[in-house]
Amino acid sequence: MMSLRLFESVKQMKAYTDPGKNTYDALIDDFEEGMTQNVIDEVFADIKRELIPLVKEIVAKSATNVPQFYEYADVNKQKEWSRILLEYIGFDFNRGTIAESEHPFTLNLSTKDVRITNHYYPNNLMSAFYTIIHEGGHGIFEQNVNEEFDDTSLTSCQFMGIHESQSRFFENILGRNINFWKPIMNKLQEDFPQFKDVTLDEFNREINHIENSLIRVDADELTYCFHIILRYELERDLLNGKLAVKDLPKAWNEKMQKYLSITPTTDSEGVLQDSHWSGAAFGYFPAYLLGSIYDGMFLDVVQDKFGKVDEILAKGEIQTITKWLNEKIHQYGSSRLPMEVIEEVCHKPLTAEPFIRYAKEKYTKIYGLD
What we know:
Elements: H1 4-17, H2 23-31, H3 37-61, H4 75-89, E1 96-100, E2 106-110, E3 113-118, H5 125-143, H6 160-174, H7 178-181, H8 185-191, H9 200-207, H10 223-239, H11 248-260, H12 285-306, H13 309-314, H14 318-328, H15 338-346, H16 353-366
Parallel strand pairs: 1-3
Antiparallel strand pairs: 2-3
């Protein structure tokens, strides 16, 4: 979790570096410059109001897992498919590579040297697939920053919400759309025969399976929102003097029950599961959900320009979207602040409405909630 001494040290440091500024706003600024807790409070409140009832509806009728997704899948074949998926979404292997690690990550040494890792489980093929699509989003961003920014402070993107928006756009908005898989489904079934008798509807339900769970990194697209909101609200209250460090475990469990209808039985599956607080990375958590909120806004712009994403993906033309992201977002690296990106790409202030609308339309259809 964290020690009281560490917590007090963080507050003292910010008093030196950002005198007169709210401590938590200063910490948020380290990860998503220009963002404030007032703005986050507003968009996160919208997410809670609209999506908590949706998740409850889905969970009440959610089907069990499709067993074929958890059958043995040869690791070497998974590695082949990691490369296939990266190339499919637009990662350039002339300027990057892929390797294996215990915890997947993306590292850029320059726009011409971007390195991605993946981890493989013999009985959880989709873990490797969605991890590599996620890391591919980060990697494509890194490869397409303006080369003139190499070896400067503008290379890459230092704003975690904007960066996370790109990995989550590829992973969730595109990769968890059943149309993403249609052009490559025959090859998937050929290489992994366990999928030969899985229908598209079953496949769609499985890759979009919604289930309340204890661990953030294993959460699905919707419940992940509440894992982030929980952490954000706790660290906000900590930094604003409304919550004591010693009361964190109890407060954590109460919010888990409130937002996800489950309660951890141990702190290791609760308040101790993340490394962020023990590493003093206060202000990082909200960037994850901000990324998804940005994605809803980007999706609207993409569809205004190119038409329905469903149709683009079904035709195997995903790189039309990739190239648009390259042009509108990636090339600028850190030269634009997050709210400048939103204003210049979307031409409107930050709002959670597009992401909420996307989530409701998608999951209402998948789970037959009409």
